[in-house]
Design brief:
The complex is a heterodimer. By secondary structure, chain A is α+β, with helices and mostly antiparallel strands. In chain A, about 65% of the residues lie in helices and about 10% in strands. Chain A folds into 4 domains: about 160 residues, Four Helix Bundle (Hemerythrin (Met), subunit A); about 250 residues, no CATH class; about 130 residues, no CATH class; about 100 residues. In chain A, helix 11 runs antiparallel to helix 12.
């Protein structure tokens, strides 16, 4: 099976390479058949990559520990679900998984564009197949998943316990679907630049794909945070770790693109900027994959140690060169058609929003790459700690939130300042009311006051936008308010989906503020029957409990939780001792409420004295981060649904194409 | 370009960029930390002009871990094969912190020559273990490179 997998990978490399050459030459020589052959090669690559992924999974499921990959990331007793996820547990497998997603996307693009965008497609295929060929080269020659050991060990060393968590079954695929998806708008952008067809086709065709990738990347980031929260046992969810940053950076530039592309659609402005954003997002996604997979940043003096480092750097350099070259070459054709003339207009809020987002992306990138840069320049690695990120990102986030509040009430082109003041009156009073209420409740943290105040402001303007829209629709149609609201939202899915995303984002901001500004913690070493407290909760240590499963042995402390005098249940924080590895794994226990989480950890147990060392965190409002994430997901899906307008436009486009072919 | 965009917008953009620059320099000032190996850190000539807050990378010397009793934290020795550095850490240690794991400590040198760490990151030695277990059969695996994969460890503990 392993040999079959190797063979498939090799054939896939050949097919993918053929797709690059055939579609490029087919486009140059206008040979439709060559282009068609390239498209078939994409399907063939997909089938071959799928077969090799299946054979790797087969080897993992049948415990073929003679393979280095299986021996390193699986073991006999590993539950089925984690045998499945062991596919992306290590470097070689995750690169293969990356390739599978890429080639699946590419096949879908080819499939859905059989009769559309025929002039762009050859170069889209070239670009996608080129990226695919690079990753296939990696798994064929650098990080091979099917390497055999000289002998076959009895059992594998097992998947890292921290990856044995349901979140780890969804988080990496989600992140990868996002990272890889950014290749699609990039491929269309490159095709548009190369062919000179710089009208709105490239971004209209990829709009949904871009939102989809943005959505997956964002969901992946959130799930990663949630995983860190429930699994790593330090009570937090985000640490400005290079791997986390790597996924945030392209997400920020992609967010910027999703906003500024609306300006291009309406005003034919910012065209170079949009292309640049799409190119940047792709390059940053590749960089992110590289940072995640190679660990160059987290270790000292490691750049030379990483074997895939130079290859990735070469690929990034080449992609940058080609895309920037094409962009410069087409620069004269990319003049905007309108002026950005008014300061008080929705266009200008989008412009500032873009600057802020790209500035934020640059700050995170700078802080993340600083160790590598300083090592290259001065020979010493200098790391940048979380304070840098917090100090830079908090003001940027506040500015972004403010814009999100003003943007919906400001008109396109030229808004009258008087009308603007009129419109933000109610939200402004809401902001003031909110801040005063918080002050009365004893909140003195300036950051928290600003953050919550702005959040109230944005929620007010956004909700009012829904209400006003529904009211004016009511006047036209005479419907009831609810019906008017529904039909309003249904007719403008993108607009109101977008606002819903804003609301989700604000809930996340509220959760982040609450859990970082008002966190409490307590540590205690207790005998049975003793208790300790944090905030309004008291935790009574009842007894030690243990459980046995084929994969691991669990030992935990049973705590009775009291809110004041009222019992609210038991928590059993503990440790899992995995049979395959020596490392115990901390299993935190959390009492979730909308108001706050009580987060408990067992850090040690002394059997002689019967003493358990326990730690508890009180994380206020933290669940609003995940709830906000849910709202964001809903909004994003809603924005992706087809609008009446889109359908009409699609039909028109198809008609035009048919007519032009007939003519 | 200046004619295409109103002056107010240009001014705001300049202000924004200036704001970024200020944020950057202020933010960087307090958060730069030198990242050294144990030998580099133990070389006083190299260290003195670099401030007093450091990140040091090494491996946990097997058998050197002494966990605090009744409180989270531990004392241990960090080594890179050539030099050794005694470390004390007073918060709960991550799961990945065991004999032989690769660790990064951040903190400063105490008066008694013990490094007082405020953060401890540890990468579990699963790959090395795998290697050991495989080599215990007196047959070396064909190719087993130590992993440099952050998803396998390198987990922050705060």
């Amino acid at each position: 099976m392993a040999d079959f997998g190797t063979l498939c990978l090799f054939l896939a490399l050949a097919a993918s390479g053929w797709a690059v050459i055939a579609s490029l030459n087919g486009w140059r020589a206008r040979l439709g058949e060559l282009v068609l052959s390239a498209e078939r090669a994409v399907y063939a690559t997909w089938a071959l990559v799928l077969l090799s992924v299946l054979s790797l999974e087969y080897c993992i499921f049948t415990d073929q520990f003679g393979l280095e990959y299986v021996a390193s990331y699986s073991n006999r007793a590993l539950p089925k679900i984690y045998k499945f996820t062991a596919l992306w547990g290590g470097q070689a497998g995750s690169l293969l998984f990356w390739e599978l997603i890429l080639i699946s996307y590419a096949s879908l693009i080819v499939l859905t564009n059989r009769r559309r965008n025929r002039s762009l497609l050859p170069l889209v295929v070239t670009t996608l197949a080129f990226v695919s060929t690079f990753f296939l080269g990696l798994v064929n020659f650098m990080a091979r998943p099917f390497v055999r050991l000289a002998f076959s060990p009895e059992d594998g060393s097992g998947l890292n316990p921290q990856l044995q968590n349901p979140f780890m079954a969804i988080h990496p695929p989600c992140l990868y679907l996002g990272y890889v998806g950014l290749t699609l708008p990039f491929a269309f952008a490159i095709a548009a630049l190369a062919t000179g067809r710089l009208d709105d086709t490239w971004f209209r065709t990829t709009r949904r794909w871009t939102i989809l990738s943005w959505f997956f990347l964002g969901t992946g980031i959130l799930l990663g945070g949630w995983w860190a929260y429930v699994e790593l046992g330090w009570g937090g969810y985000w640490a400005w770790d290079p791997v986390e940053n790597a996924s945030l950076i392209p997400w920020l530039t992609c967010t910027a693109f999703l906003h500024s592309v609306m300006i291009e659609e309406r005003k034919k402005m910012l065209r170079v900027w949009n292309l640049a954003l799409v190119i940047m997002s792709f390059l940053l996604a590749i960089l992110g994959t590289f940072i995640t997979r190679s660990g160059v940043i987290s270790s000292v003096h490691s750049f030379t140690k990483s074997d895939i480092g130079p290859v990735f750097a070469g690929f990034l350099g080449l992609s940058t060169l080609v895309s920037v070259g094409l962009l410069l070459y087409r620069l004269p054709d990319l003049k905007g058609e309108h002026r950005l003339d008014s300061f008080v207009s929705r266009e200008s809020t989008f412009l500032f929003n873009n600057l802020l987002l790209v500035g934020a992306a640059f700050a995170v990138l700078w802080g993340t790459l600083f160790p590598i840069l300083s090592e290259a320049v001065r020979g010493v690695k200098i790391t940048v700690g979380p304070p840098f990120f917090n100090e830079v990102m908090v003001p940027i986030a506040f500015a972004l939130v403010t814009l999100a509040g003003i943007c919906p009430v400001i008109a396109w082109r030229r808004a009258s300042p008087r009308k603007l003041v009129e419109k933000i009156q109610i939200p402004f009073w809401a902001l003031l009311g909110g801040v005063v209420a918080l002050l009365l409740r004893g909140v003195r943290d300036v950051y928290a006051l600003v953050s919550f105040g702005l959040a109230v402001f944005v929620i007010a303007t956004t909700v009012m936008e829904f209400v006003w829209g529904a009211r004016s629709r009511q006047k036209v149609t005479g419907q009831r308010f609810g019906g008017a609201l529904l039909s309003l939202v249904d007719r403008n899915k993108r607009r109101y989906g977008g606002f819903t995303v804003h609301l989700g984002f604000i809930l996340i901001i509220i959760g982040v503020t609450g859990s970082s500004a008002f966190r409490q913690e307590a540590t205690a070493s207790l005998k049975r029957g003793e208790s300790f407290s944090v905030g309004r909760y008291r935790m009574l240590f009842e007894d030690m409990v243990s459980r046995d499963s084929p994969n691991a042995e669990f030992m935990g402390a049973r705590l009775s939780i009291f809110d004041g005098e009222r019992g609210v249940g038991t928590l059993v924080p503990g440790q899992n001792f995995y049979k395959a590895g020596q490392n115990p794994s901390t299993e935190v226990a959390i009492h979730y409420t909308l108001r706050e989480d009580l987060y408990t950890i067992l850090t040690g147990f002394d059997p002689h004295e019967g003493r358990a060392t326990l730690k508890a965190y009180l994380n206020p409002l933290i669940n609003w981060i995940w709830i906000g994430g849910g709202v964001l997901i809903l909004g994003a899906w809603f924005a992706m649904l087809p609008d009446l307008r889109d359908r009409r436009r699609d039909a028109e486009a198809r008609l035009l194409e048919v007519e032009s072919r007939a003519a | 370009m200046a004619q295409r965009i109103s002056r107010k917008i240009v001014i705001t953009i300049i202000l924004l960029v200036a704001g970024f620059a200020i944020l950057f320099s202020v933010g960087l000032k307090g958060s730069l930390v030198y990242y050294l190996t144990v030998s580099e850190f133990m070389d006083p000539g190299r260290r003195t002009d670099l401030g007093d807050h450091f990140r040091v990378n090494g491996n946990v010397l097997s058998g050197s871990i002494k966990k605090h009793e009744g409180a989270p934290g531990a004392r241990f020795i960090l080594t890179d094969g050539r030099s050794q550095l005694p470390v004390v850490y007073n918060r709960e240690v991550p799961d990945t912190f065991v004999d032989g794991s690769e660790a990064v400590v951040e903190g400063s040198l105490g008066a008694d020559g013990t490094f007082v760490a405020v953060t401890l990151l540890a990468k579990c030695p699963s790959k090395y273990e795998a290697q050991n277990r495989l080599t215990n059969n007196d047959r070396r695996p064909a190719r087993a490179t130590p992993s440099s994969d952050p998803e396998e460890g390198g987990v922050p503990s705060r």
